[in-house]
């Protein structure tokens, strides 16, 4: 091939390539019909739904949790996710009301050994409605109204417990009464009747007579004929406890209760219920008649402030009552100790007591006295009221959220005035900024 033919052949080859390229180009596709603007949102929603499929609503419930030992602020309101499921022998209860007990105050300070270490939900009792039952539960059904007694964990909107830890509520009993009855009345009943063998014409000393156990004990004493009740409480509560059945109210803050009792009953008492501990236990023992019974069930003297008081602890333990068997025999007296928290394995026995209590409730011989109700958000205030001994009766916690109260007209006017005062300086500043600057003389 000569050099002159090369340009011509090259041009020919390029022309052939161009023809091939043109013939291989795909045909232009017809454009889709344009959608109207009204269809755009629907298309966007459909695309979003395809990318984010709808999720099932997560079950949540409110719970009070002890985050650490200390003051009232250590019990915090939390929202937990996931619905608890009852296992064999268990039931799920929707809680309507919870009871606050002295043990819960001790637990907050780390002084109650039946409460596990934080974080933990306190609460030994509640009342509510069964929402689900596990397998092998035959004596409870969905919709049953029940009282619940458990070692801890009751301060929640829903709880899962063993079915035999629940007790059917009688018709007409409110949820607040149901939450107020178990701990206080079981404690008082077992002390007076199982240990104390209370009989007609006997005398009983009830310390903290305006508290939950104190009121329960007073009512149970009057279920027996001609029982005399001595009750200690601050003077402001005497009218209330006298109306509740206390025969001789004593102001422990201004009087020596031992001297006061001796003036009225020189021979002493048949039963002393001691929730105080320390030196008061010895005083209680000395107040007993021959064949008398001292029943100790607490150590309230160690609780003196928001946080653990080492001095009060040391003083209480230093004055702890002790006695040997020979001295008991010579004195013809008995000393008993009661702690409901350690009877959690004896629910057959506890159930028998609850049955007797509900019978007395039906007869109108006992009726819980509710001092006050507090929503979960107010748990700190509720604990303060009880710890400072301001309550007369049971303090109740409510799981339902606190509703915001509508503002009064006066409050609205006050807020409007405050807003106007705030706006006035802002308007003045704006005027200053908008005022044109005066021309300077040259």
Automatic annotation (TrEMBL):
GO MF, any single term: oxidoreductase activity
Oxidoreductase in keyword set: yes
Biased composition range(s): Basic and acidic residues: 12-36, 400-442
Region (Disordered): 1-54, 390-442
SMART domains found in the cross-reference section: PKS_ER (SM00829)
BP GO annotations: negative regulation of mitochondrial fusion
Record's compositionally biased regions (Low complexity): 1-11, 37-54
Residues covered by the Enoyl reductase (ER) domain: 70-397
Keyword Oxidoreductase in annotation: yes
Pfam families tied to this protein: ADH_N, ADH_zinc_N_2
Alphabetized UniProt keyword annotations: Oxidoreductase
One term under GO cellular component: mitochondrial outer membrane
Protein name: Enoyl reductase (ER) domain-containing protein
The species this protein was found in: Anguilla anguilla (European freshwater eel)
Lineage: Eukaryota, Metazoa, Chordata, Craniata, Vertebrata
